[in-house]
């Protein structure tokens, strides 16, 4: 395993972060077997992954519970645990958002589920239009002062919102976001026209989610197959919106390079991300140990400048991103 520092911090993280959204029982596509989830986490640790990302809303806390149980026997000092706050966690008022109350309540609930005294990276899952960013930043800063969290990060927002958060933290003299978690992969490149330039300029760590575009970049979908009778029909609506001529052209190049390099399309796709200077640790979400091992092996796949350009050529990144409601 290779390691890097997260943005301009001194925090050392593995080049891959294990995404834990799959752990739980709330959706058919998730890993319902808790034992299997523990086995994937154990294998990730054996392979040198020290970075784990979850969120309070993943299976309404069940993901955090599984991660906490699986990691409890290991040396906490060697682990980097990340989770998120924002989403609705119950009925009634004060059960969603980034108010001081909700942030404090959910931080403690996450600590309890994760069976730990502190969270390494606590991220706001979305921007909250209903709460002044000053209130949120001061709440996060106070949690750092209390020793409950170590770093703060953010996920999925406009460049204006993120820049406002960074500027406000500087003005208020509180801890600023050190990390951004955007959607980013070889076909979803809209963040190149939005948040990634800010991250580069401000020294922000980047840990992309959906690095394989919901499975599209693994090559498992067939462009020419009957969309009513195969895996294309089984794809979720979010993934189906990726079935465009431009994206299929990207996948054609990736599959050609994979064959030439004796690698899988997933490995070439992940290698493309790893060679982006702005990217620290893509968040992979394997549903089996085999997928985990395949993904991690992408560290050994090298792409030339010409090959990187061939992958990127069919798409012209733009913002806003196409709607995927």
Automatic annotation (TrEMBL):
It comes from Natribaculum luteum. The keyword Oxidoreductase applies. This is Aldo/keto reductase. GO terms for cellular component: cytosol. PANTHER family: NAD(P)-LINKED OXIDOREDUCTASE SUPERFAMILY PROTEIN, NADH-SPECIFIC METHYLGLYOXAL REDUCTASE-RELATED. Keywords: Oxidoreductase. Residues 17-313 form the NADP-dependent oxidoreductase domain. The lineage of its organism: Archaea, Methanobacteriati, Methanobacteriota, Stenosarchaea group, Halobacteria. InterPro entries: AKR, AKR_Detox_Biosynth, NAD(P)_OxRdtase_dom_sf, NADP_OxRdtase_dom. Signal peptide: none annotated. Its EC number is 1.1.1.-. GO terms for molecular function: oxidoreductase activity. It is an enzyme of class 1 (oxidoreductase). The keyword Oxidoreductase applies.
